[in-house]
Amino acid sequence: SGRLIYQRAPENLGRLVDARAIGMMNSMMRETLTISTGHKADLPGWPAAGKTGTSQDFRDAWFVGYTGHLVTGVWLGNDDNSPTRKTTGGGLPVEIWSRVMKAAHKGVPVVGLPGTSNAPLTASLFPAFSAPFGSVPAPRPPGDVPQPQADVPRPQADVPMQPARAGDGIDNWLVNRLFGRR
Q1: Measured between alpha carbons, how far is 136 from 180 in angstroms, rounded to an integer?
Q2: H/E/C letters for each residue in the chain?
Q3: ∠ CA(68), CA(73), CA(77), 5° rounding?
Q4: pTM higher than the cut 0.85
Q5: pLDDT in tens, 100-144
Q6: Which of 14, 80, 129, 180 lies 20 to 30 Å from 170, alpha-carbon distance?
């Protein structure tokens, strides 16, 4: 008959994680892309963060990365649990992630990672020692990438990737990278 019998009152659970902890985690994960194993990640104009991983005997290689817009994970390995040909998380998984994220972020307004700034993580831990270091100017994104606001951090450096040949899609690119057909 359309008569409301019960309606649950909305609950305000409040903040689950302290904003400073979120900022520190995002800063640490961003360092993976600037100075660590994920340094080959290429997403011009977008602040990004992530984590690489490689299991024993190179059986699994993965990269999980994110922006303020999207989280994406890439895993490579053999279905029979046999070792790969020394594939690491900072190699091909990062390259695949970069290509997928570039396509997914086309035309999307740039947003920052919560709680982060342009300064490297070490600047907040050791402010007296960080002034002359890490002052590399942020690269300008290409014209088809929206410009971030002034207070939104940008990646420290662009790492050039192999250009795709005309007509190559991501599938052909992946087969070429895995099996060496050029």
Answers
A1: 35
A2: CCCCCCCCCCCCCCCCCCHHHHHHHHHHHHHHHHHCCCCCCCCCCCCCEEEEEECHHHCEEEEEEECCCCEEEEEEECCCCCCCCCCCCCCHHHHHHHHHHHHHCCCCCCCCCCCCCCCCHHHHHCHHHHCCCCCCCCCCCCCCCCCCCCCCCCCCCCCCCCCCCCCCCHHHHHHHHHHCCC
A3: 165
A4: no
A5: 999 999 999 999 998 877 555 545 554 544 444 444 444 444 444
A6: 80
